[in-house]
Amino acid sequence: MLADAIAEAFPVVRVDSLVLEAARLMVEHRLPGLVVTDVEGSPCSVLPAADVVRCLVPSYVHEAPVLAAVLSETMADRVVDKVGSKTVGELLPARPPELAVVDHDDNLVEVAAVMARLGCPLAAVLRDGRMVGVITASRLLERVLAS
Amino acid sequence: MLADAIAEAFPVVRVDSLVLEAARLMVEHRLPGLVVTDVEGSPCSVLPAADVVRCLVPSYVHEAPVLAAVLSETMADRVVDKVGSKTVGELLPARPPELAVVDHDDNLVEVAAVMARLGCPLAAVLRDGRMVGVITASRLLERVLAS
């Protein structure tokens, strides 16, 4: 069994996509993170949903969490202010989580080894430098348990 | 809006659950991780799916990844050997990922602040010390975008 046999479509955003678009994709697909590609479409990182949540938290709450309990502002007030024109690239941490990347003809042990080494719950599958899909850790486990 | 208004059911394993059971739950619900509770049912950590994948990779592949491409062994051969009687607690790293935990009457800014601080894509919601559900980052974003 090779990687491209179990790769699946998966929501992707580019580094120049709006954070709001990323948030909507996370909500629509109920995902804890998205694959991020560069402007040419090459997968380069993962945007964790927790990082989108982080940018909606007022900075004075980060500094004094107790204020969260007493503030009158809602996070909804901040969506447009905070992420209205912000891009995914601006939100990624200085050292963004490394995305596992495998070749379409890698076997499943190779895929597992890369995921395990990076502690990454998904791997982008490339063929001729283009992403043809994603293998999630749960998809990989599914194949292993089924075989 | 308070935490318990948006908390949802979420698959949970105990530290003494079998890894195989955890893997099956990840597959069934297509999840990148599960909430782990102690034997009394108090949420204490998160088991990432990548950690389950890791224990299926032969140790000589961890040491020399190039061997993954040429080995004849499949991961399926290893499932029973490697995780047959292993528990979730045995699999968790020495410093397991910290699970965000919130009170049922915390507001959504408080929930977001805890998730953001821990970089955790989900928060367990407690009422009187018992877990009543989980709020995922995508669920939180859904409420924020909808309001």
TrEMBL record, chains A, B:
Record has Secreted as a keyword: no
Keywords: CBS domain
A Pfam entry, by short name: CBS
Keyword Methyltransferase (UniProt): no
Domain CBS: 94-147
Name of this chain's protein: CBS domain-containing protein
